[in-house]
Request: fold
Amino acid sequence: MVRPLACTYSAFYICAVRSTIPLKNQGAAVTRLKLTTHVEQDRYGDFYLTDAVRPAPDLAVIPTEGYRVGIFRDPCSDNRIPMLVASVSREKLFDVFHDMIELLGDPVDVILETSHDSSTGEHHDLCRDGIDLPVLQSYLCDFEDLLLNDGCSGIAVMNEEGTCEVQFDEHKLIIVYSADLQPYMNVLARHGVRRDDRLKVITEAEHLHSTNQAYREQFHELCCRLGIAESIEHARW
Reply:
């Protein structure tokens, strides 16, 4: 069952002005009413967005389900790593993420990403090494609403060897880095997500993020649960 949209116009508006949509430069092209109507739309065809993000009103990229495969080149080491990027409709998004991190083994390392207090949209990383996977999964279930619907929170989970990573970013895209992508592609196939190497994702055009004070507080609580409360208290935003 796809749940109704729960976000508010004001949350999107604040983030739009802060980071992604230069509304002042668009003059009368984007009115308050037009933007309100736009962010209330959470469905494009058979694809449902979470509350975390919306495309810009010009719809340069229309949200679509699918995944594509490519190569990531590390600019520092020049190493090349196979990667995939998946855009998954919200009713199965969290299940896909859970199934993918199951492939990483136990224990895992975790990085929480936050841009709650960033004026530029850049995110800050908070790390926790060596957590049992079942414990992590339990925490993720407790904070499912935060991870799905907060446009300023993301998480990355890595295997103990550091050779595979599953990222669930602020835009609610799933990004995988691994020498062997086939097991992750199998997960997507089981959930009916098809490969499309021409797929355009929401980050490739202007877009809007949504957050609020309650999500900021929940993010801090998740950090405490994961044992990285000291790190977040001393972080320089």
